[in-house]
Amino acid sequence: MNKAPFIAVEGPIGAGKTTLASMLSQELGFPMINEIVEDNPYLDKFYDNIEEWSFQLEMFFLCHRYKQLEDTDRDYFKKGQPVLSDYHIYKNVIFAERTLHGQQLEKYKQIYHLLTDDLPKPNIIIYIKASLPTLLHRIEKRGRPFERKIEKKYLEQLITDYDTAIRELQQRDPDLTVLTIDGDHEDFVMSKTDFERIARQVKELIK
């Protein structure tokens, strides 16, 4: 790999992105960009009324992630240092296309491209694929009150949206490497063997 590794762990809500990213950050000794979810003041309102609060929610996430990546570019990428993140900036588009419509969506995409087109993009994505029962189980287990309001239909659609988005990212960037993890059968939290297997695969990719 020519550039310093920029690894993003991705997957639908409840896939275990932050957990796996934290474990890999410790294993590899890479600094981690940690997505801030619960600090978004619009989350509760959003799950109560998606149509009313979706634009505010998505703009808050976009601006926050933009600032994180701008800081990371200055502090790490420009110095050639590797970084691990528990999200890819493109996730903003995945969620916006599900919650925004018409002019709002067009305006959002224009702002997204203005902010992110010149930001560094991950050269490795660890994609955690997981079925609806697995996502629901993990969401219930971590006990975030606002996530209990998420409809099953919304989660099912996100699973499909993520599959499509990962394919599109690969098609656009021939240098992007995607490592897909079976989140239904690989329990990287409870099984040391599963985690070590994933860590070995990642280490091979960044050699």
From TrEMBL:
SUPFAM superfamilies: P-loop containing nucleoside triphosphate hydrolases. ATP binds at residues 11-19, 138-142, 186-188. Residues 7-207 form the Deoxynucleoside kinase domain. Coiled coil: none annotated. InterPro entries: DCK/DGK (IPR002624), Deoxyribonucleoside_kinase (IPR050566), DNK_dom (IPR031314), P-loop_NTPase (IPR027417). GO terms for molecular function: ATP binding; deoxynucleoside kinase activity. Keywords: ATP-binding, Kinase, Nucleotide-binding, Transferase. CDD domains: dNK. GO terms for cellular component: cytoplasm. The keyword Ligase does not apply. Gene3D superfamilies: P-loop containing nucleotide triphosphate hydrolases. The keyword Plastid does not apply. The active site is at residue 86. Belongs to the DCK/DGK family. This is Deoxyguanosine kinase. It comes from Bacillus nakamurai.
